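R.M. (postdoc): so does anyone remember the format we settled on? I'll just put the C-alpha cells first.
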C-alpha cells in the first residue's frame, strides 16, 4: 500500500517543527550509511523545498550527509541507485605488475613479502595477496638434508 505523498510531507513538516521522531532499524541499530528509506525520505524532502539542515535534523544525520544526497539529486541520480564506483587497486596497474614480476624472476626465490611490500608501498599482507592473485609460486627451496648422527646402541 503506497503512502500518500501529502501525508509524508505533512509528517516531515511536523517533525521539522517539533523535532525528530526516533526510528529504529530492523535490529534497532543505525549504520554509518543511509538506508534506502532515509535516502528516499531525504530526496522527497529536498524536492518539497526543505533545507538541508532541517532534513538533517529530521533524519538525525549530519548536514554533510544530507548535502551529499542533494548533490546526487542535482546530478540526476535516483535515490535508489546502487553505488557503482569501483575501487582502484595497485593490482590493476600493469607497470606495477611488470616491475614486481621482473624482481620476482630475478630474485630466484630470495624476494620476500616484506621486500615486495616496500616496492608496492603497502603492508606485507597486501603483498601476499598480490602474489597470490598473480598465481606466482615460490621455487622450491633446495635445502641440504643433514644426516642425523647415529645414536649409539646400548
Amino acid at each position: 500500500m503506497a503512502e500518500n505523498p501529502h501525508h509524508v510531507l505533512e509528517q516531515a513538516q511536523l517533525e521539522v517543527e517539533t523535532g525528530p521522531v526516533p526510528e529504529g532499524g530492523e535490529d534497532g541499530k543505525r549504520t554509518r550509511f543511509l538506508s534506502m528509506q532515509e535516502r528516499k525520505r531525504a530526496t522527497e524532502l529536498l524536492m518539497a523545498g526543505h533545507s538541508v539542515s532541517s532534513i538533517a535534523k529530521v533524519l538525525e544525520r549530519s548536514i554533510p550527509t544530507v548535502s551529499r544526497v542533494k548533490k546526487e539529486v542535482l546530478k540526476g541520480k535516483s535515490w535508489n541507485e546502487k553505488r557503482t564506483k569501483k575501487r582502484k587497486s595497485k593490482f590493476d596497474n600493469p607497470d606495477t605488475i611488470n616491475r614486481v614480476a621482473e624482481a620476482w624472476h630475478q630474485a630466484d626465490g630470495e624476494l620476500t613479502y616484506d621486500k615486495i611490500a616496500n616496492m608496492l608501498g603497502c603492508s606485507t599482507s597486501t603483498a601476499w595477496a598480490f602474489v597470490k592473485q598473480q598465481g606466482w609460486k615460490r621455487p622450491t627451496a633446495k635445502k641440504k638434508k643433514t644426516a642425523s648422527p647415529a645414536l649409539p646402541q646400548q
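R.M.: ...and that's the designed sequence above, right after the C-alpha cells. Also worth knowing: The mean pLDDT is 75. The two ends are 92 Å apart (CA to CA).
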